[in-house]
Amino acid sequence: MTDNQSLHFDYRYGFSMPEKYVFKTRKGLDSDIVKEISYFKKEPVWMTEFRLKAYQAFKKRPLPSWGADLSGINFDDIYYYIKPTEDQKKTWDELPREIKETYDKIGVPEAEKKFLAGVSAQYESEVVYKSIQKELARQGVIFVDMDTAVRDYPKIVKEYFGTVVSPHDNKFASLNSAVWSGGSFVYVPTGVKVSLPLQAYFRINAKNFGQFERTLIIAEEGSYVHYIEGCTAPIYTSDSLHAAVVEIIVKKGARVRYTTVQNWSKNVYNLVTKRAKVEEEAVMEWVDCNIGSRVTMKYPSCILAGRKARGEVLSIAYASENQLQDAGAKMIHLAPETSSRIISKSIAGRGGRTSYRGLVYVSPRAEFSFSYVSCDALILDERSRSDTYPTMKIETWKTFIQHEATVERLGEEKLFYLQSRGIKKAEAEGLLVNGFIEPVTKEIPLEYSIELNRLINLEMSGSVG
Hints:
This protein is of the alpha/beta class. The chain has a domain at about 5-300. It is built from 12 helices and 24 strands. The protein has helices at about 5-10, 30-40, 45-60, 95-105, 110-115, 135-140, 145-150, 155-160, 170-180, 410-420, 425-440, 445-460; strands at about 25, 80-85, 120-125, 125-130, 140-145, 185-190, 200-205, 210, 215-220, 225-230, 240, 245-250, 255-260, 270-280, 285-290, 295-300, 300-305, 310-320, 325-335, 340-350, 355-360, 370-380, 385-395, 400-410. Strands 5, 6, 8, 9, 11, 12, 14, 16, 17, 19, 21 and 23 form a 12-stranded mixed β-sheet that branches.
């Protein structure tokens, strides 16, 4: 059995469809390809210039010298833009058959019919299907793909694009800024509460492909929105790259929750920059669940810029054989009476490795602030490993900081107790793991919580020992 074949037993979405597209750049990246992407999208001059400046920044910035070994990424062997359809479709029935079959397997239509207010599906570089309830439009909520936003709402996009995550922030943010395509744009007007979650699916189907969606969410004063993204990819022997950027602006008294259930296949480098600016008395909540990928480096961040702003990150990371989940969070306290909470749960089995990498910074101006960090790691066997790299930079004594971390094995006494009650060992192990991650899974919509537990139980099969 080949390595590629064995992976199919572990990964539910390891299927791939025949590649069909209307446009595809040549491999590799240079300024001509950057201009070609912008020209093909018929973008305004300011966006073309933004991309070209970002490309220059990408060339100058080195790969990170910490975290995962990224030297295996060959930037010259990647397709940076693939357009799968001629134009964006408004109804499901209009999509090409092979794309519909892909999303039928993932469950997009079923999920939409059950409870979702809106669905946006990205296949390769472009958003190919978008629907939204009339009620959202009546409330003034804008939920479109980023390409449509640049065309139809240029004033709003230009005001906020690149203001929370600069093109000079890190190498992969620079790369995304140069070649971004697709992603979501959400604008919630003042006082509007979006009662049901908005949702996006991101799917990589092509071999040697880089996906670089860009998401921008603006929640005006006193508003609320919950955005959910799910990510999948097929399995190829060669590696793919996913380098997204998410920028969120949470205005005074607003609240945004951003939930990710990431189940990339184990050939994907998942290198994502996610950051929110949180203004006075506003709340930003990240719920981050990472199961798949070869390497994940992701640290959702909150810049607590206004008095009494609050940030929260709840995360789960599961690493199996040949996987590194290097995840965590950043909380930047810049104003008085701000508060933050980081709850990190990681599981390592079959020789996998998890790392918590976090930063809490409290500026001299952030008096009477509060931060709580809890990092819990569960190791399922002797070959696996977990590391914690917390950084605390506290520049005022008028603050309250808590940090705690635990590393544990599955308790033999707990397993024995459950087995003595007639529960089979595999089921008992699953119950203990699900109990371990329950503080995070209870924050996820039920349909996703069930799926996440099932996927983790599938990954655990045969990994405890």
